[in-house]
Design brief:
The protein is mostly beta strands and 278 residues long. Helix content is 8%, strand content 27%. The strands form four sheets. A four-stranded antiparallel sheet has the order 1-2-3-4, with no helix packed on it. A four-stranded antiparallel sheet has the order 5-6-7-8, with no helix packed on it. A four-stranded antiparallel sheet has the order 9-10-11-12, with no helix packed on it. The chain starts with 12 loop residues before the first helix and ends in a 32-residue tail after the last strand.
Length: 278
Amino acid sequence: MPIEQNGGRSPGPVRRARLIWLSCTLAALGAASAATETVIHSFGFFPYGANPYGRLTYDASGDLYGTTYQGGGANLGVVYKLNKSGETVLHNFAGGADGANPYAGVKVDSSGNLYGTTYQGGTANAGVVYKVGPTGQETLLHTFTGGSDGGNPYAGVILDSAGNLYGTASKGGTANAGVIYKLDPATGQETVLYNFTGGADGANPYGGVIGDGEGNLYGTTHSGGSFKVGVVYELSPSGAEKVLFNFGTTGTNGNAPSDGVVRGPATCMGPQRLLCSS
């Protein structure tokens, strides 16, 4: 019989597995402790922006782009570019018709144009969809009224291969429970693809949408659903919504999601080639 180093019986398969797991865990912890953080940029209120909430995106050159919720010339947020030379403020939000306080980041197209939303500002103070060119020129693509077209978007937008934008607004719509919309940036024409009712279908989407190759959109709502704490949904090209999951079914599966969903890269190809990120 094999002799155990510390006396007693030799380790069985389960214990051996535990020992291997422990060794791997300790090795991983050792690797983690050796990692170092590099601060690329520290924000300050004026004039460079402060309190970034949105995700970063990057272009083919590796330059980073994002937004801050506050800071800038009017303390209403900025759109910025970050590279090895440092931060460049591309646009200062001024409030009023210009828009104010972007929660979401931006998307960049092949020409270097940036697209995003602000939570406030616009003529109704219900937010805007904007475009910022490579030189910093802002173009307002849509001003939310807070009514049937939606209002106060927390989330940004995605683009399809034709350049159309898709996003969500947390308020407005027929039930004031938020909408999913499509926007033609060339004409500024907004099409509401779905009005949340606030019932079983969900309400108040804080996160944006992603798409698949068949033109289906996927996202979450912050509230509504069977347990009133949000859902994961699918929206077909015809505008039919399907609830994929209700949060709150147990005490352990989470509730009230504030962001969207992601999919694996194999699902991100197809005729419409919707970008698979929110």
